Amino acid sequence: MEVTNKPNTSTVEGLRLALEELGLCTKGRKPELKQRYKKALKKQTEQIKEMTDEIKLIKTESFKKQQPFDYYLFFDVEATYTFRSYVQPTVNPKLSEFCTGLTGISQSTIDKKVLNEFQKFLAKYDLFQTASATFVTDGPFDIRDFITKQCKHSKIKTRPDYFNIPWVNIRRTFRDFYNQKENKNISAMLAHLKMQFEGREHSGLDDAINLAAIGKRMHQEGCVFKTNCRFDISHPQRYGRRRR
């Protein structure tokens, strides 16, 4: 279940907003826009269904005995349910053309209340409560650096507890499991596995879906996902570093 404020697709303006959110062309008349949006939704539904069917193996007893957590959150929940929302920047609330071009995020899609919505989402599926869970991220940056910086800008004095517990840095897990000399980013991990990136790079949901696909392949090949990254509140902030 994806948490977004969906545009009204019964109007031309709504269709264009919906297509813009998906990173697709917004040019054309209403019939063309409607057909393009319908095709995109069908592809997304098939993609999630395929992941849902394949992820059923996670619910087997053999998996539960092998893996230390019930759920792995690739900023998607078990790949069966998905959460996506956009945070309105407080330092630069007006998105630049570069940012929009890189991420596909438009000014109209950002949501100020993303943290509250995310916490409702976690509560709905009982995550970090009776169901054990951990985050899986592409490097340490998202939780260690970007969450820290956003909490500061949003004047959130205390980081949510679920961002302070250890999580899985899949770059490190991938490096160790496949005996690589250095960490790889999403594109390099997919290339190593002879897989293709699905969707739009730098889109939070699409990046997470591809991370889940990488994790699924690693699990199929016998990888056990243990936490290997933690947030150290006493460590100097490093959120100025960029992903490579």
Describe the SSE topology.
Elements: H1 12-21, H2 30-55, H3 61-66, E1 71-73, E2 76-77, E3 81-82, H4 97-103, H5 114-124, E4 133-137, H6 141-153, E5 168-169, H7 170-177, H8 186-192, H9 204-220
Parallel strand pairs: 1-4, 4-5
Antiparallel strand pairs: 2-3
Distance between the termini: 30 Å
Strand order of the largest sheet: 1-4-5
For the record, what CATH class of the largest domain applies?
Alpha Beta
The number of distinct structural domains comes to 2
Output the CATH topology of the largest domain: Nucleotidyltransferase, domain 5
What coarse outline follows from CA principal-axis ratios?
globular
Structural class: mainly alpha
Helix content: 40-55%
- The average pLDDT score comes to 74
CATH superfamily of the largest domain: Ribonuclease H-like superfamily/Ribonuclease H
State the CATH architecture of the largest domain: 2-Layer Sandwich
Low-confidence stretches: 56-62, 76-83, 85-93, 102-112, 239-244
Protein name: 3'-5' exoribonuclease 1
GO molecular function: 3'-5'-RNA exonuclease activity; nucleic acid binding
Subcellular location: Cytoplasm
Organism: Rhizopus stolonifer (Rhizopus nigricans)
Describe the protein.
This protein has 244 residues and is mostly helical. It has 2 domains: 12-62; 71-230, 2-Layer Sandwich (Nucleotidyltransferase, domain 5), CATH 3.30.420. Helix content is 43%, strand content 6%. It is built from 9 helices and 5 strands, in the order H-H-H-E-E-E-H-H-E-H-E-H-H-H. Strands 1-4-5 form a 3-stranded parallel β-sheet. Strands 2-3 form a two-stranded antiparallel ribbon. Mean pLDDT is 74; it is low at 56-62, 76-83, 85-93, 102-112 and 239-244.
